[in-house]
Amino acid sequence: MAPLNKSIIQILLGILVVTAMLPFGKAIKLIPLKVTVQIINNLTQPQDLTLHGKDKHHDLGEHTLKSREMYEFTFRPNFFYKATLYFCGFAWSSDPSLHRFDIYDERRDYCAKCSWKISETSACNYDVTIHERSASSSMNSSHAFTITTGASELTTEKNIK
What we know:
The protein is mostly beta strands.
């Protein structure tokens, strides 16, 4: 068999194997869609919310939101496997604690636009497409927010000086 014919057969076999592994009728996502995460200051007392967000490779910096203001960032999730994780620390003047929360976890969040309302006692995932709360977490006495779906926590730590 000529080398060119052998190469063509190998390419066709590769395409056949990849096609057989795809779910029937599903499109291939070669490039992940962009995800936008919104963080809204929903503190009940009109006060500033300071947040510092990052993932393993990117530091989003510190941002201060006035009452009802929003901060958002956009990124593409991990191309090879579902491992994208962004986390934030939150603080406000009436609470000396540092509150930490996984603001985007690719294994938990299936949204192209994830909107989180942060208050003194909860972090609520607000579905902007249907204008209602889709997941919520509430503060308990052990200083942790627990998502009602059981998927994630917003933890609180006392500032150490």
